[in-house]
Amino acid sequence: MALRLITAGESHGPGLTCIVEGLPAGLELEQDAINRDMARRQLGHGRGGRMKIERDRADVTAGVRHGRTMGGPVALQIPNRDYGNWEERMNPWPVERSIPEVHLPRPGHADLVGTWKYRTGDVRNVLERASARETAARVAGGALAKAFLKAVGVEVRSHVTQITKVRAPARTTALTVEDFEGVDESPVRCLDAEASRAMVGEINVLRKQNESLGGTFEVIAFGLVPGLGSHISWEERLDGRIAMAMMSIQAMKGVGIGDGFDVAGVPGSQAHDEIFYDEERGYFRETNHSGGLEGGMTTGEPLVVRVAMKPIPTLTKPLRSVDIDTKEPAQALRERTDSCTVPAAGVVGEAMLAHVLADAYRTKFGGDHIDDVREAVRAYEERIGWRR
Ligand SMILES: Cc1cc2nc3c(=O)[nH]c(=O)nc-3n(C[C@H](O)[C@H](O)[C@H](O)COP(=O)(O)O)c2cc1C
């Protein structure tokens, strides 16, 4: 891996940290762009009380000077604004008061197995790190990857396509970057106004029934050069890397590239993207069933990733569980929770896709300074006759 992203931090601890290593020097960063993404992760109808407390901000504490990277690891710190209320319970150091343990593992969360594996009788030691609060750090790091991608002409966008049984209508034309302009104004980050209203209604109904909701979202990268990733080895196939990154997001249970699972149900003539050439455009396709990947490499078409999220495991009317101290039947922990975070998950998906793609650019083009990267990309585009 040429670009590494590492996060640290617990849900109610002092704060989260993200370190991104492998960015070239000279890359211009915008503080507002990082914090805008932090805020976008907090958007969405169906969030719980915590989002009102959070209002996240990422402070850069290393690797950047006067708005530009210097080539060293970039460190970002995101304070947990709720820590004031958790200072005793989550203090890194011993405290005087005895702190009650959590003994009620939630089905669908890391709670039960985590206590076995990490040899603890207190579910809090597991849930604090398993919580998707960690995605705030990924989004901060992903914003750096996005800045890098922007410098080489790539934009990453996302939108929600389904919340439980409400689906946005299938698109008849391919999406462009411009289509995403108002997406964050929809309370569910859906591009279709009618589906957006229906999704909000669905969340309201199920939330009242103490239910949680899952759904699907799509992340698309525009402006990629062909040839990122490789068919040469399984580890280098970009589809595999993307699936891993997406599935690593808490609660994601399925990933499809392009038509994804749907290709299994159509004959070959409808599954592939025929190849054309003309003097003006060079090589081109008229369809994008492959979602911009063939043989584990980008084709130069928009890269389309579809992701399915399960309903959130913490329920306001808890599921049946067992008290791990007494072994008696009990109700699962009822921690403050969101009911639907598919819109936010899309923003996390953008961060993860941006990271994988930025890594693929760093692997293919190297360069110690961002201008070295740009020159290498330009030379390659010229060699293969690629026209944007
Ligand atoms: C943006 C986001 C927010 C989430 N918020 C919650 C939450 O409030 N409550 C909860 O129980 N799970 C939430 N989850 C899901 C859990 O973190 C996840 O289900 C859990 O870590 C177990 O991992 P698994 O579902 O991948 O097995 C959220 C996930 C994402 C992506």
UniProtKB/TrEMBL annotation:
Q: Where does NADP(+) bind?
A: 41, 47
A Gene Ontology CC term for this entry? Answer: cytosol
Pathway assignment reads: Metabolic intermediate biosynthesis; chorismate biosynthesis; chorismate from D-erythrose 4-phosphate and phosphoenolpyruvate: step 7/7
Keywords (A to Z) from UniProt = Amino-acid biosynthesis, Aromatic amino acid biosynthesis, FAD, Flavoprotein, FMN, Lyase, NADP
Cofactor(s) listed = FMNH2
A Gene Ontology molecular function term of the record: FMN binding
InterPro entries (alphabetical): Chorismate_synth, Chorismate_synth_AroC_sf, Chorismate_synthase_CS
Q: Which CDD domains does the entry link to?
A: Chorismate_synthase
> Could you give the cofactor binding note from the entry?
Reduced FMN (FMNH(2)).
**E.C. designation(s):** 4.2.3.5
Biological processes annotated in GO? amino acid biosynthetic process; aromatic amino acid family biosynthetic process; chorismate biosynthetic process
Q: Where does FMN bind?
A: 129-131, 250-251, 295, 310-314, 336
Pfam families linked to this entry: Chorismate_synt
Instruction: Name the catalysed reactions.
Output: 5-O-(1-carboxyvinyl)-3-phosphoshikimate = chorismate + phosphate
Q: Which family is this protein grouped under?
A: Belongs to the chorismate synthase family.
Q: How the protein assembles, per its UniProt entry? A: Homotetramer.
The free-text function statement in the UniProt record for this protein reads:
This reaction introduces a second double bond into the aromatic ring system.
This protein's name: Chorismate synthase
Q: What is the lineage of its organism?
A: Bacteria, Bacillati, Actinomycetota, Thermoleophilia, Solirubrobacterales
